[in-house]
Structure formats: structure tokens, C-alpha cells
Amino acid sequence: LEKDAAGAMNCAEGFFEWMHSQQAVTREDIEIKILEMVMNAERRAFFAGTLKYNVNSRRSYIRELQSCTDIENLKKWFLDKTREICTKLENSKEKEAGSIIDRAKEYINENFRRDISLDDVSREVDISPYYFSKLFKQETGKNFIEYLTELRMNKAKELLRCTSKRSSEIAGEVGYKDAHYFSYLFKKAQGMTPSEYRKTRGEA
Fold first, then answer.
1. Which of 17, 63, 155, 192 gets the highest tally of CB atoms within 10 A of its CB?
2. Which of 62, 87, 72 lies closest to 9, judged by CA?
3. CA angle 57-58-60, nearest 5°?
């Protein structure tokens, strides 16, 4: 359900149509089956933390089903309930993804001066490196290295503007052991070397 809401809706509709097409299946059979499927889906949503359990929350279900005047209304009830559960699962997934990336950003912001890797950050947020890489790109629009490099370059620019530290010192402060590699990345990002950047900001 949470992975493919549209697919879940298509499956629900297809299954309902299949039940309705079976000669041996009565309306009562359909009512029982769709009630069972909705309650199973709600159970999954509950254990996923997206649905609060209330002992009387389903009190009206049987009455609602029995009040449906025809098969189309039964189908509508079933699809509406399925859609509601899918929406809650999707919203929860988005919130969870946002929380993971917020934690990842916080860790990166606190540790960018160290030699950190994608594996380090994925361990910190307790998900696989593959899933973290995909999720990070999806949520930020940048891959991990792009985000880390941009953060380091912004800090380097701040140090170039506000201090008289040498480029080699700044390289170490923003996470690069190799000053030449730092200068290469800086020029690639800014179109000028660190010393040229400092001069253009009147900090020569």
C-alpha cells in the first residue's frame, strides 16, 4: 500500500469487479470480504504508526455496508476506505523521509570538517547506503557528495572573506587534507582560485 498507492487502488477495484463477476458470490460475501480487506489494511497502517487505534472507530462499518443501496455504492465505500488508508500511509512516508534527511543534514553540518562518507551518514540515520543515497537525492535535489562539497565551499568562502588564514589552513578546516585538491574543487565551483576569490572580495 505505502509503496504504490495508485497500484493499490487499481488492485482494489480489480478485485471488487472480479468478486462481483462470480456467480457463486453473494452480496453478503462481498460485504464480508471488503470489510476484511479494509480492516487488514487498517491494521497495517496502525503498525506502521500512521493510524491511531480507537476501539469504537469501526462501529459504523457494518451499518454503512448494509445501508449501501447497490453494488456500486458498496464499491465506492470500499475504494473510499482504501484511498483514505493509502493517503495516510503516503503522508507518513513523506514525514518519515523528511525526518531522516533532517537528521542526516544535521549530522553532515556538524561533521563536514571530518572525512565523512555516505556510509557514515547512512549508519547515523540507520538505513542502507543505497536507500539513503536515493532518498537524499529525492529530498534535496543533490547527491551526498554535491551537498557536502557545496557546504564545504560555502564555509571556505566565509573563511576567505572574514579571516586572513592561508588557503591550506582553510582546506583543513573545511574537511580537505589535500590543499591542492581543495583549490581544484574551489575553482571548479567558483570559477576562480581561493586567492583570486579573496582578492575580488577586497580581502587581499
1. 155
2. 87
3. 110
Query: Which sign does the torsion angle of CA 84, 86, 89, 94 carry?
Result: negative
Cell numbers for 135: 532518498
Rounded CA-CA distance 152/52 in Å is 43
Query: Which one, of 174, 188, 178, lies nearest residue 197 by Cα?
Result: 188
Answer whether 0.70 is exceeded by the pTM.
no
- Max CA distance (Å), the chain: 88
Q: Which three cell numbers stand for residue 40?
A: 487488514
pLDDT (tens digit per residue) in 72-88? 999 999 999 998 888 77
d(Cα 117, Cα 115) in Å, to the nearest integer?
7
Residue 133: all three cell numbers together: 543515497
